Amino acid sequence: MTDADDLRARTRALLAEHPPATTSRADFLAARFDAGLAWVHYPEGLGGLGAARSLQSVVDAELAAAGAPDNDPRRIGIGLGMAAPTILAYGTEEQKRRFLRPLWLGEEVWCQLFSEPGAGSDLAALSSRAVLGDDGVWTVTGQKVWTSSAHLARWAILIARTDPAQPKHRGITYFLCDMTDPGVEVRPLRQITGEAEFNEVFLTDVRIPDSHRLGEVGDGWQVARTTLMNERVSIGGSTGGRESGMIAPLARTWRERPELRTHALHQRLVTLWVEAEVARLTGERLRQQLAVGQPGPEGSGLKLSFARLNQQISGLEVELLSDEGLLYDDWTMRRPELVDFTGRGPGYRYLRSKGNSIEGGTSEVLLNIVAERVLGLPTEPRTDKDVAWKDLAR
Fold it and tell me: How far apart are CA 378 and CA 229, in angstroms?
């Protein structure tokens, strides 16, 4: 049984054999993965040791103290937070060994091909089609939208409809799509911030071998739910110390600019500071609960809080700065590798946070999930539950 002392010893042995000061970043990360210290709760041979998830912090603390490089988790967050746990839960042994190592090392970036122009909040209404040929290869045609990192990604997690005669939550299958294959076209979507961090992706007769199917045919919605629950924890439960995240620049401005303070703004700041700290601690508790299983619907509540707080905090920051808060630092059209909330100005934070209540599940949908699956309230009436997708009005 691997415990904290054993992990410390393993980590120190890794550091002794591969000193960060003299070992290249790529070589160090590869050695860390092979030593089972990438994500300790994963199985042996897949970057882990089958240890308790909560013990990852022991490894991380030792590595941070030694100045060891990380795998740039913000850049590969979709792979780490969504693709990896889904592949671990539903992938074949061959799929796990093929995809998890380069994913964690950051050699292959991932994106998520779920949302569609006609199926955003109602994801199960998606219309992208996948048809299996006699040669054992699926042909996929459709359009996806709001795809973060598609311009950087080598691989994508993809859901498509494989049986339109089934109701919309059935007849969906989950695939791993090579973004370099013929028929995959990525176009930038310029946002209100001036950047194009999102994309729309057109799929025209894209051929995906059946060996890149994840889970059973027609079971894609169940597989996708695993992805979505991990996504919401990943978005809403990000790690950080006290006064981290969006509250940090607001608190810093308050301390450094006393001439901007008013009693009313002070009361609002204190309230938001407390709520941000409560959300941070709730996220920490949820991550500890993950040590004994997969995330549940509680992550939806955390993501709801994340979106609301970001929008309220960024709004207060702009209001605190008055006319100065209306200035914008840079409208240059760029396609960034990650979202940098704290590295840009208050105008950027205010505009970008508007998307927080849409991405990763709209707040309206998440409120339903919390009401029905956490609080146990009656479900909303649904007339399309048992109707074949092909017969639904669109």
Answer: 21
Joined tokens for residue 38: 């990438």
Among 369, 378, 387, CA closest to 302 = 369
Encoded tokens for 287: 């991550």
Instruction: State residue 291's pLDDT score.
Output: 55
Report helix, strand or coil for 120: coil
Cα gap 389→394, rounded to integer Å: 10
- DSSP E strands, 56-154: 110-113, 129-132, 137-144
User: CA distances (Å), 132 to each of 49, 138, 173, 205, 208, in order?
Assistant: 38, 4, 11, 12, 9
CA 203 to chain centre: 22
Average of per-residue pLDDT across 280-291: 75
231 is catalytic: yes
Q: Which residues contact 247 (CB under 8 A, 6 or more apart)?
A: 272, 273, 276, 309, 313
Tokens of 254: 């308050």
Label residue 146 left, alpha or beta by phi (over 0 means left) and psi (-120 to 50 means alpha): left
pLDDT digits (tens, 9 = 90+) for 213-230: 999 999 999 999 999 888
Closest CA to 252 of 241, 244, 263: 244
- Residue 133: how many CB atoms within 10 A of its CB? 10
For the ranges 13-27, 217-231, 337-351, the one whose mean pLDDT is highest: 13-27
Considering Cα of 116, then 308, then 310, then 349, what sign does the dihedral take? positive
Query: Distance from CA of residue 331 to its chain's centroid?
Result: 26
Residue whose C-alpha is closest to residue 161's, from 211, 118, 106: 118
Q: Which secondary-structure segment (H or E) carries 154?
A: none
Residue 323: both structure tokens together: 């006319």
125 Cβ contact list (under 8 Å, min separation 6): 118, 119, 168, 389, 392, 394
Of the candidates 315, 295, 302, the residue with the CA atom closest to the CA atom of residue 276 = 302
Cα–Cα nearest to 238, from 33, 73, 63: 73
Cβ atoms of residues 200 and 144 within 8 Å: yes
How many other CB atoms are found less than 10 A from the CB of residue 207?
Answer: 14
* CA-atom Rg of the chain in angstroms: 22
Structure tokens, 34: 């092979």
Annotated active-site residue in 197, 231, 298, 317: 231
